[in-house]
Design brief:
The protein is an alpha/beta fold and about 325 residues long. Helices cover about 30% and strands about 20% of the residues. It folds into 2 domains: about 160 residues, NAD(P)-binding Rossmann-like Domain (Rossmann fold); about 160 residues, Dihydrodipicolinate Reductase, domain 2 (2-Layer Sandwich). The protein binds NADP nicotinamide-adenine-dinucleotide phosphate (NAP).
């Protein structure tokens, strides 16, 4: 079986990453790829690739030729695009934030405008396979998680499920490579603004990704994102307080629920993950640190590639589940 695929927003960072992954997937066939400003050109005119994929405008595509579309578009633009595809009987994996929040009021609060297709929110499944695998397999519409939330939710979810945390407020301090902001130009991501620099932004309780982290963990997240002068990768440092009886061994045991996960790895005691362990892979890797003379406080360090496990790789993992394929296909 070949899955016939359309990609909206193929000229962005996640769109191009997706194309690279799908090219080595044995059961994926890209039927169309759309662009906005580059419509009418070829993908090879935009990126250094030998792939002669024509770029069409979104209005030109024939949805009857595909089984699945990936939306690699900004939030707000995606909802009407997904609506059209679903109405044509096509499955949708959306990489934007448009379908990640269950509650339209939350969307309006965090994204500053009313949701364009609130009736679809109840149908959307949050596409984190390690937590929602069963629902993903049956979904028509998958909301691929945000880049920061992927690692932070995976690090915290097992602890919440096991009831090990003493406090419902958690501090997450994250550092992201610049590709996390997308390919479009902005002063903040200029080479001369980011190179040899390191800065915090949207700290406290203001970054939009907080909404999905809180939805999925049930915790309150104090979140401090930073812009790291590298192209890709996210490292999050999370500070937790556990119940008095919880020691490091108990904490580590909670991650046994992910023992069979192909893309989640808990490092042995005493080891911490680094960006280079995961860049260019679909892995999420966690290390846990106890704190000397400070019982019941621990530090979690979790890493991922924002463009792969944090976006396009996770989207391919979701596609594999949706079409009953080996979840690892095209990702190892
Ligand atoms: N970057 C990451 O690490 C990451 C991780 C997870 C999720 N995401 C999410 O994934 C989505 C895509 O992100 P990205 O980083 O790939 O963004 P990007 O590099 O800025 O690319 C966006 C794509 O959408 C097109 N586009 C922009 N505005 C449009 C409009 N009004 N109508 C139609 N097409 C439009 C762009 O075309 P032009 O080239 O013509 O502008 C480009 O093809 C976003 O919602 C983002 O939040 C990103």
């Amino acid at each position: 079986m070949m899955i016939r695929i359309g990609i909206y927003g193929a000229t962005g960072y996640t769109g191009f990453e997706l194309i690279k992954l799908l090219q080595r997937h044995p059961q994926a066939k890209i039927v169309f790829a759309t662009a906005r400003s580059a419509a009418g050109q070829k993908l090879s005119d935009i990126f250094p690739t030998t792939l002669d994929l024509p770029l069409t405008s979104a209005e030109e595509v024939d949805l009857s030729t595909v089984d699945l579309v990936f939306c690699c578009l900004p939030h707000g633009v995606t909802a009407p695009t997904a609506q059209k595809a679903l109405a044509a009987g096509v499955k949708v994996i959306d990489l934007s934030a448009d379908f990640r929040l269950h509650n339209p009021t939350d969307y309006e609060h965090w994204y500053g405008k009313a949701h364009a297709a609130p009736e679809l929110l109840a149908k959307a499944v949050y596409g984190l396979p390690e937590i929602h695998r069963k629902s993903i397999k049956k979904a028509q519409l998958i909301a691929n998680p945000g880049c920061y939330p992927t690692g932070i939710i995976l690090a915290l979810h097992p602890l919440v499920q096991a009831g090990l945390l003493a406090e419902t407020t958690v501090i997450a301090d994250s550092k992201s490579g610049v590709s996390g902001a997308g390919r479009s130009l902005s002063l903040k991501t200029h080479f001369s603004e980011t190179h040899e620099n390191f800065s915090a932004y949207n700290i406290g309780h203001s970054h939009r990704h907080i909404a999905e982290m809180e939805q999925e963990t049930g915790l309150k997240i104090i979140f401090s994102p930073h812009l790291l002068p590298v192209i890709r990768g996210i490292l999050s440092t999370i500070y937790i307080t556990t119940k008095p009886e919880v020691d490091l061994a108990t904490l580590r045991q909670a991650y046994n629920v992910f023992a069979e996960e192909p893309f989640f790895k808990l490092l042995p005691e005493g080891k911490l993950p680094e960006l280079r362990h995961v860049v260019e892979t679909n892995l999420c890797v966690l290390g846990i640190q106890a704190i000397a003379d400070t019982p019941n406080r621990f530090i979690l360090v979790v890493v991922e590639d924002n463009l792969i496990k944090g976006a396009s790789g996770q989207a391919v993992q979701n596609m594999n589940l949706l079409f009953d394929l080996d979840e690892r296909l095209g990702l190892l």
